[in-house]
Amino acid sequence: MTPALRRILGRLIGSIPVLLIVVIGVFLLLNSAGGDAVDAYLASIGGGDAGLAAKLRAEHGLDQSIWRRLIFTLGRLAQGDLGWSVALNRPIAAVIAERLPNTLWLMGSATALSFLAGSALGILAGRRPGSAVDRLLSGGSLLLYSIPGFWLGLVLSVIFAVQLRWLPVSGIETIASGKTGMDRALDIAWHLVLPVSTLGMIYLALFLRVMRSGMAEAWSQDYILAARARGLSESRIVLNHAARNALLPLITLLGLQAASMLGGSVVVESVFGVPGFGRLAQEAVAGRDTPLLLGVILVSAVLVILTNLLVDLAYGVIDPRVGRGGT
Amino acid sequence: MTLVLSRRGLFLSTAALAALQFLPRSASAQSGGRITVAADSEPAQLNPAIAASNGVFYISSKVIEPLAEASYDEAGLRPLLATGWEGAEDGLSITFKLREGVTWHDGTPFTSADVAFSALQVWKPLQNIGRTLFANLTAVETPDAHTAVFRFSAPTPLQLIAKALPVVSSVLPKHIYDGSEIAENPANRALIGTGPFVWGDYKPGEYYLLKRNPAYWQPDLPLAEELVFRVLPDRAAAAGSLEAGEVQLAAFSSVPLVELDRIGKVPGLTVITKGYEALTYQLVVEINHRNAHLANLKVRQAIAHAIDRQFVLDTIFLGYAAKATGPVPANDPTFYTPDVTTYAFDPEKAKALLDEAGFPADASGKRFALRLLPAPYFNETRQFGDYLRQALAAVGIDATIVANDSAAHQKAVYTDHDFDLAVAPPVFRADPAISTTNLVRSGIPAGVNFSNQGGYVNPELDSLIDTALTTLDPAARVALYHRFQQLVTADLPLINVVDWSFTSVASDKLGNIANNPRWAVSNWADLTLGT
After folding, report:
1. In order of start, what are the domains of chain B with their CATH numbers?
2. Other Cβ atoms closer than 10 A to A127
3. What PROSITE patterns does its record include (chain A) (predicted)?
4. Which of A6, A77, B28, B419 has its CB surrounded by the most CB atoms within 10 Å?
């Protein structure tokens, strides 16, 4: 077994306790909130008599003690069974398989947009710290970062969808259009323009600022002085020396942002009517649907762990010191 | 239309953005007779015979029909699957004549066996409202394929059952459900009915698609080819989709009240308040009579005098509501009486009543403190909670708002009784016996939502409620319910503030809308889309 492979395996095994803590924590947290899935359901249909509530509780196993349900849940999850959603009345694995791709498309595109555009603009701003370009970009990014996601989403929607009618207001694709293959992919991309821009813009600001400050710091380093002394062109110094070193914290940030972007997608998915993972989590909490929420959180946790693993591996490629010196 | 930006001035200077204009406007493309409407929620299951609720009816009523639908005409009811109904002299049976020549969507004929099965196997044991309403139903006889005789163990007023028909009598196909676990049947998600539209498709989180039923029993109907219910949980998105022409209707006030004034001015869109008369919601202050302060009638009267109904109407409901005088809304054509005790807005009188009750103000002006739980289901119930807190503070009652989401609110108020005052939005369903007397009747076990969980006991009121439940003569029932309103407003087991109905925002292209008092949850057979 190669050291790299062993490291990956070690990381994966090490993440099992993390997942266990996540599951137990979420289970207890949701069950400590007032009311259960039957209360939420009966509220949604305008109530019923006491016998109906008792009958439904027995059907969903909600008449059992919390500890029995926890042990049952852990046993079920250990067998790889995500269970049955109370609120949606469907198998959770099927629901997740349906929603996850939408969110992955949304997050993946938004991450790519914010990372690429953010780092490029960051380089532009950090090329000459204190210059007019820098001040404009830094100020602009601060403004962008402080705008709440739902507001930005609504404003973009009002301008580009409602007033100008360039883009669809909501949804992931045209309803029952019968489109397939490339046509369908284009249709989905078309619907994703606004949600991706909204989500991407907020994180773009973050990447821009981190890149810019990394660049600004690099200018005072000796290797820049050495590069200058070697008579390298300014653009080569900027890109190959300053930017390459400033990129490392950005890669770390990429891993960290994966988790926070999942959170941000809740709002964006709701505003743009995208049937995604974030909205599913919100519906699970409102419906007190413990198995569904556990499924969503568990899959999200695995995603975040995998992303961070990828980031670690990317680190090893970009910064040769990491692979060699470490474990 | 109020343009935020000029379409041309600002953006067309950029060549790249200008190019976007040549991309297809896919979203607004309409196919033939497809009508797209906004839906703000996705019910866990869509079977209206099990869950008699507006969220379920909104979609399912187009596929599965009740025996009769509410109507604006004198009778108040329009026959659907039943063509007539007659009560026996002794009130122990009701005979329904059923429509002939009706088929289920799979081609099987509709018969009295379907009605008997639905009543005994679904409405009575499983349905949230039917479990109470049909508690005395013992048998359904089917002398022929188009007659069903409902037998009751106690006298049951025809008036009550008839008024409840649109809500409780959705008929299911026996051949699909018989012998299966009804609550788990796949037909609860892919509905099979007799209605003008057949089930098409459901993409969770996206849409429900219903298609024209070419074999519908009413000739030449339905008029629309397809109905699409677009899932739009975000209210701003619903308004935006209407303006962009992506949906032609947003019902159940899914466009917030504050937006109505603006959106009503958008060319091609109209705000409609009709079509919800039989779905009147009541803004009610629920009272926990276990609280020693609130057990005192003078305190309850003081609270009633402290509320400025006109302010609530104007500021919270922006005029889209009516002041309530008691537990029956004024728009009810049968049971309402204005001849009740009323409580004018009078803070000074409220203070005097509190003094009389023995709760004088202390140096800081406070008399006592209590917890106030506004129901989270509507913006208006939450906003009224904020208002009530201030109104009570003005007379020296220090209320603390406890905000919960719906599951937690249900448990706190209706199971744990962990409240002093609560704000509730119960529904008036055409007859006080269906879901209104429950709000004040004693002896209801804990855990029953939207019922008297405040510990209020009034033997006179209880016996009146019980008498009315078995009184057969319609005029005598109406008189009893007038007395009911008088007793409730005199003793204030709860305080009715305003009654409100929903609004729809609809495209002017839609025809035949809001033409019955349960329009949003009726079958839309005659709904059309013009050009």
Report:
1. 7-24+33-47+195-276+502-529 (3.40.190.10), 68-177 (3.90.76.10), 280-500 (3.10.105.10)
2. 21
3. ABC_TM1
4. B419
